Amino acid sequence: MNFNIRGENLEITPALKDYVEKKVGKLEKYFDEPLKSDVHVKMSVLNTDQKVEITIPMPKLVLRAEEKHADMYAAIDLVIEKLERQIRKHKTKVNRKFRADDSLKYMFKNELEPLAEEEPESDDLEIVRTKRFDLKPMDTEEAILQMDMLGHNFFVFSNSVSGDTNVVYKRRDGRYGLIEPE
To answer: Which range of residues forms the domain containing residue 102?
Structure first.
């Protein structure tokens, strides 16, 4: 794994860097092969809160979690726990349905139990960040699972049934909505 660790309002000490690399390295136990992807870690200080964001883009999956805590080391531990839960959830729920040869289940070890972010726009309608990502073909159930794993309230995907670009979103009442083109 290649680590890209950066700090915002914070100097990244060698101790912090080693701690992050050691903790993220433990995630490799969930995979058959060593991870060859980049690991993006952003640590920041916001008033009294320490915030850690970790993103691990992989060929058919994006693992991402963020956590705030008063202690940076505790925030790192909490974000690693979130990533482990995402891996286990993905292994059990998504791959229970998708048993094809190109399924992600072959990425994970069998003996273990087991995407894209948008920044909110400002009031003056200025685009401050643009993200690009591949639209993976999936059905609405997998899109909802991906959205929940990422902790977002919407998710853009390519519908594997119709081939159209769709959006699933979380409604205020806790249920889900689907936006399809006509």
So the answer is: 1-114
- Say if residues 3 and 21 touch (Cβ distance below 8 Å): yes
**Secondary-structure breakdown of the chain: helix, strand, coil percentages, each rounded to the nearest 5:** 30, 30, 40
Retrieve residue 55's tokens. 């993103």
What is the Cα–Cα distance from 92 to 114, expressed in whole angstroms? 6
Model confidence at 56: pLDDT above 70: yes
Look up residue 143 and give its two tokens.
């899109």
Are 103 and 149 within one domain? no
CA atoms within a 13 Å half-sphere pointing along the CA-CB vector of 63: 27
How confident is the model over 161-165, as a mean pLDDT? 89
Q: Are 155 and 167 a contacting pair, CB within 8 Å? A: yes
Same structural domain for residues 68 and 131? Answer: no
Residue 115 has pLDDT above 50, yes or no: no
Q: Which of 140, 157, 151, 87 is nearest to 117 (CA)?
A: 151
Asked if 93 and 16 sit in the same domain, the reply is yes
Q: Are residues 130 and 73 in the same domain?
A: no
Please tell me whether residues 48 and 30 are part of one structural domain. Answer: yes
